[in-house]
User: Fold 4Fe-4S dicluster domain-containing protein from Brevibacillus antibioticus.
Amino acid sequence: MGKQVLYIEMDNCIGCRSCLAACTQCGGHDNRNRNYVLDVDPFISRQTIPLMCLHCVNPACARSCPAQAIQIADTGAVLSALVEKCIGCQNCTIACPYGIPKFDEEQNLMYKCDLCYDRTKEGIPPMCASVCPTNTLQWIEEAELEEKRAQIPLANGKWTASHDPDVLEGETNVKISLPGILQGKQKLF
Assistant:
């Protein structure tokens, strides 16, 4: 089995928020939601998109942590702050260009999506992808990702936002397809 990645096909999102419910109920998440669903422009369209940690290859949250509490797993998953190391400075929440890490004031601790590391290190899809009814969130092998890329070529070369070298944090371990948005197409529902 090759390396697997979380692939987000934004056009498929219907805003059902199943991913949020699954994330909250995941065993190691202490009933805290670590992903979000964003209404892109609720007064104009029903377009929604899942918003989650992109697990940057060189994450700003980890770089900004003075206590080195944010570790990067061998799979590329950027983990939540280690309880024994996090000093609650919130540098990571400020540094992340995507606004993903959140701060728990009661525990004085940062928390964020860890790509369900306990599951994904065994090849099991993260909870959000395992329940998504529209295949917006998919846990696929890199070979399948290449097939998808070949099926939807865009002249401007921006098939995936996460490969664009000008993106805020450069390369990420979560891959995103934005073909409808980039081509100016609107959802049919």
Residues 11 and 134 are 10 Å apart (CA to CA).
